[in-house]
Amino acid sequence: MASTTLPTLSDVAKAASVSSATVSRYFSNPDSVATKTAERIRQAVLETGYTPNRLAGSLASNKSQLVSILIPQLAPSLFIETIEALVSKLSSAGCIVTVGVTEFDAAHNEALIMAALAYRAKAIIVTGEVSDEVRKFIRQSSTTAIEIWDLPEDPIDIAVGFSHWEIGRSLAQFVRSRGYTRPHFVTNPGPRGIKRRNGFLEEWQTGTGCDVTESLMQLPFQPGAARRIFAEIQRLEERPDVVLCGPDWMAQGLIVEAMHFGLRVPEDIAVIGFGNSAVASEMRPTITSVDIDDQRIAETIAEILLNRDRGEEIREKVVNTGFKIIARESA
Amino acid sequence: MASTTLPTLSDVAKAASVSSATVSRYFSNPDSVATKTAERIRQAVLETGYTPNRLAGSLASNKSQLVSILIPQLAPSLFIETIEALVSKLSSAGCIVTVGVTEFDAAHNEALIMAALAYRAKAIIVTGEVSDEVRKFIRQSSTTAIEIWDLPEDPIDIAVGFSHWEIGRSLAQFVRSRGYTRPHFVTNPGPRGIKRRNGFLEEWQTGTGCDVTESLMQLPFQPGAARRIFAEIQRLEERPDVVLCGPDWMAQGLIVEAMHFGLRVPEDIAVIGFGNSAVASEMRPTITSVDIDDQRIAETIAEILLNRDRGEEIREKVVNTGFKIIARESA
DNA sequence: CCGCAAAATGAAAGCGCTTACATTACTCGA
DNA sequence: TCGAGTAATGTAAGCGCTTTCATTTTGCGG
Question: Which of B114, B157, B226 sits opposite A51 (nearest CB)?
Fold first, then answer.
């Protein structure tokens, strides 16, 4: 469509009879130009219909406002609330945020990281594993790498998350304290899901000496998963009295199945979710779930980025934002 | 972290003893450099740990790979499946996609558009209304504007969507053909929701002469909405025999509420959703819903962008991707 | 009214690429 | 072996900004 070329800084400068340096200053720090000049520039911008070219700006200043978020899946996603909090927080901090979907695939993940690096992103927010080779590229760059939703032993740079092992452990304690005796664990076979499972199993077995039955989710998340897993549970010799799910939508799905087959929740079978998404408090019965502090994650990240911008040293490389078990009707 | 400065094209050129132009060509069109030279460059890239700087590249070539998607809300969202399809399609086409959340706010929307323009985005994909002023900026730029999920009378540039009025109309016919007589319409007060409602009402009233009761959703979507609206329905003098919802999650919520209060679905009250998301086929009863062809939308857009890149003229400015009512158990 | 510090502006050198154009290196038929 | 035509490479001028450093303007006390 661009019939002619877009107006540039110096077009504005010409129109306002100042140098382009002054116009540049007007945009980056309005107070540094005299009020009369500022007024002339404002006019000139309007006249010319100028839109700054941030590509040029970022190139010249060697800093970009691009933040790249990489997640395995978008719909359905465990992360969607975190993403929303991040997008909103970062946007209002003047960043432009890109979203990449890795589809649980390492190659995809790394390609997306390299793409972000190519755009000289200010930060890359990842949830997946990163190979040594790519870590090297990231470290070489001035891009801040932030791992979220976990507390890695060896963070690339910064990590903001919580302990999945601890969640598993707390869930085991919670379940035991409620008097359940035959838990069934629906394991998300991603790295974090495994940690929750292990935490649960260790705590449960040392605490009770009893066994735990288990189902495996499939990645990527698929429609029909809840039905499949409920069927699996039905085939068990002895029916579990509580099921620990991955995402809340899985918990919801299991409740729906259970009720459909005439079971009462939680009397016949209790269900516990993960993520504390909106659905958890809307379901009948309301769903007991593990709450993640999306807001805090987003705020922490925004702050870290701000501090980096100001050249401050980041002291806490690994921030634990914790979690909370929210007891509701379903367990 | 960047202790030193990143390697550049000419660093690679030096290492491979060629000119930087050749290295540039090696990246944009590998076949145009001699195989021996290509091999040397490949080595040099490895040695230096070079990552192209796309900011510089885009600036010089005056074309960017950035595509910006603007939606009102992310979680819960009507659009999430469309977004996922788009992100995946566009990523594999080499684009980098940014997501902006407008929060149903015109000012937000326009700020995000201006930001995308500032990055000289290849395309902006919008779902909201765009003011005349901003339209002018878009038209002035070489950015392709794509309106999705609707068929505007006066498109900014390109539109890929379907007719909400027609959906309303088809739903009315469907409901009537099933013998329902007292529909209740849950209206999403966004521009598209209003169209669906109007289509439904017109068709219903001319077809039956009967009235339709109505509830209004609140934007942004809020937890508790389904409970609130079900309560509203319960307070009606005469109970509707079918409820037409906004998003499927609202349909699901209403079914949960209905069953919780001892109503049978669809015998006592039928429910119809919109969007045909995964939940629709997983719920018990499965949810009758309106299917949107996300894949087709994504593919159409990818193709349009490709054609634009090749300098081809786009003939169809407004593409209707249609919709389908999927009859299931809930109505 | 002068002189000086501070404020405001300007000049110009890049940032790391792409690309038009010029040049050099091949290939191959006569 | 020569030369024309093609393939491969090099040269250099930008792309639109930021930023350092130099210069001009302004404000103000004496």
Answer: B114
Beta strands (DSSP E) in B93-140 are 96-101, 123-126
- Boundaries of domain holding A47: 9-52
Q: How far apart are CA B124 and CA B118, in angstroms?
A: 12
A residues 83-122 closer than 8 Å to B (CB): 83-84, 87-88, 91, 96-101, 103, 112, 114-120
Q: What pLDDT does B4 receive?
A: 66
Tens digits of residue pLDDT in A254-303:
999 999 999 999 999 999 999 999 999 999 999 999 999 999 999 999 99
Which nucleotides on strand C sit less than 7 A from a protein beta carbon?
A: 7-12, 14-20
CA–CA distances in Å: residue B30 to residues B25, B27, B84, B97? 7, 6, 32, 25
Contacts of B309 in chain A (CB under 8 A): none
Question: Per-residue pLDDT tens for B25-41?
Answer: 999 999 999 999 999 99
Q: Residue A275's domain is classified under what CATH number?
A: 3.40.50.2300
Tell me: the pLDDT tens digits for B241-267?
999 998 999 999 999 999 999 999 999
Full-prediction pTM beyond 0.90?
yes
Give me the amino acid identity at A206.
T
Nearest-CA neighbor of A124 among A170, A66, A39, A167? A66
pLDDT tens, residue by residue, B160-207: 999 999 999 999 999 999 999 999 999 999 999 999 999 999 999 998
- The number of distinct structural domains making up chain A is 3
Contacts of A161 (CB under 8 A, 6+ apart): A147, A148, A149, A150, A151, A297, A319, A320, A321
Clarify whether residues B198 and B182 are in a common domain.
yes
Mean pLDDT computed over A88-111: 94
Q: What is the mean pLDDT of residues A97-125?
A: 95
Residues A287, A217, single domain; the answer is yes
What distance in Å separates the CA atoms of residue B153 and residue B167, rounded to the nearest whole number? Answer: 17
The answer to the question of residue A3 being in a domain is no
pLDDT the model gives residue B129:
86
Residues B238 and B261 in one domain: yes
* A 58-87 residues inside an 8 A Cβ radius of B: 58-59, 64, 66, 68, 73-76, 80-81, 83-84, 87
Cβ B57 to strand C below 7 Å? yes
Q: Per the domain annotation, does B2 fall within a domain?
A: no
In B146-165, the residues whose Cβ lies within 8 Å of chain A are 157
Question: Does a structural domain hold residue B40?
Answer: yes
Residues of A in contact with B144 (CB under 8 A): 1
Tell me how close the Cα of A34 comes to any Cα of chain B, in angstroms: 25
Mean pLDDT of B84-97: 95
